[in-house]
Task: structure prediction
Amino acid sequence: MTAEDLRQRYLEFLRCKRHAVIPSASLIPREDSSTLFTGSGMQPLVPYLLGENHPKGTRLCNSQKCFRAEDMEEIGDNRHNTVFEMLGNWSFGDYFKKEQLNWFFQFLTEELRLDPNRLYVSVFSGNKDIGVPRDEESVEIWKDIFSRYGIQAQIVEEAEKKGLGGGRIFYYNESKNWWSRSGKPADIPVGEIGGPDSEVFYDLGEELSRHAKSPWKDQPCHINCDCGRFIEIGNSVFIEYVKTEQGFDRLAQKNVDFGGGLERMAMIMQGKTNVYETDLFQNVLDKIESLSGGKKYQDNIKPFEVIADHLKATTFIMGDNKGIKPSNTDQGYIVRRLIRRTIRYGRQIGIDSQEPWLPEVVKIIIGDYKKVYPELSQNLEFIIEGVKEEQAKFEKTLNKGLKEFKRIISSKEEADRVLTGQEAFDLYQTYGFPIEMTEELALEKGLKVDREDFSGQLKKHQELSRTASAGKFKGGLADVREETKKLHTAAHLLLAALRKVLGNHVHQKGSNITAQRLRFDFSHSEKLTDEQKQEVEELVNKAIEKDLSVICEEMSLEEAKNNGAVATFEDKYEDKVKVYKIGEGNNVFSYELCGGPHIDRLGKLGYFKIKKEESSSAGVRRIKAVLTAKE
Ligand code: SER
Result:
């Protein structure tokens, strides 16, 4: 079964269970300030998990492009990619545990015909401190499911200490069985949503266990031990909690957020034991083989996988209609790291780095994915030019930098196995070595880098060259507390007022909203005069005084355009969209496409005040504003 068939089958399976199929959202989040990239299918859907109505209903599914920078160093085991596709389905206060667990198991065993004896599951063991109980409900459902296949499912606690113990259902604590965008219950900010989850693992066979070689060889093997034997293929998250100052509250609705890695499922279906052996990577690996003058993938697993993964990630990020290219900030910095690491690993397998070889691989990747993600071919030129330029830039300094690195290493005494922050900073500043790359190079020689010292050096440098850091900020809402919602509504008022005062060339370029303040970037080339700022404030405050209503309307994208709704139309929208209208009849103040959430009446906002107006980047200004008690 090809990966393409698998993707189709999954979506069709859910469609028959009355799910609407939605397109993959952008890899660069539009309304989510918690991460730089979309790392899971639920991220663009947070407002609906909180109770906003989605125009397509309460059951959705898709295949979502995801990127997880934190997995960069994991490439080379048999299961990790930085960029991958997540098959996902969601219930917004509709079905819950019983349907979800049954359906996913049905998909695996009936649609994909996987052997149920090879499937194992994990559930949340509960945590009294945060007031979330053990997930016995899921355990009962799983017992029932397995028994229908003639399997008496044994339950095991503390598998980390005891091992498999003939079990089928395993309890783990929040380190394994709790999910939210920003991590574990203790670490997440107030207002963040999440919940216990239940994962399904596939047993690839005991012979694949690398347990004997693993750093945990003295601990028993279990489904979550990462030795290579068991692979997680799907995660059902039961999002029913929101973090508060005191602990956790229940959300108004019980949601399901399911995600399963397409590459991993394809690997199992194709009888492989490594995701890079699937049809998804075949053409790329062949190309790398020929570029390297015939070196074999099987003899050079890590460099081949790093190159294949990192160039795929580069292609997907740069090809996402957001104009991201290599730079020293935010998403651009990640692209820079991906490309530079690719070049370094290319050298290890003898790829002639003087030739612009990266575009060759990029073209293969675009060819493989153009049907599913047409935006990649639309951005082909942009990606090719970008990688070429970055390669040329790095090649200029790489040799000298490596020489300098060697010099530093050889100057170290046996007892002094640490690179100072200054040394790492010079490699970064003069030769363009991302700090992570210096760390990796150092590690290969058994050295560490003083990261704290490096950060200090970097900070000092940034303070000296402030202007360079006027980059863009991460977009969106920090959370959905009432105060944050108010400022989100205020951002709509601000955009409408700016257009009234400065003209209709003003468009939103980005926003970042917390419970304390809003930051808003918009297209305009000149500094605002004091009069203009005052006028904008007055317009907004007058609208607030009138206590205008905030009404949400749903319509087709076409209709929204015809009605003159304000939007960044180059963004990808669903064919059915939500438009927020502030005011009514002849008194409509703002009319804007948006996913929400907003408050319902302006009277609650208080008093709007601009704190700062400054340049953000060429042709883009930034306003910082707050809401205070009425003056
Ligand atoms: N959000 C969950 C995850 O990423 C399920 O989709 O695992």
User: Anything to note?
Assistant: The two ends are 66 Å apart (CA to CA).
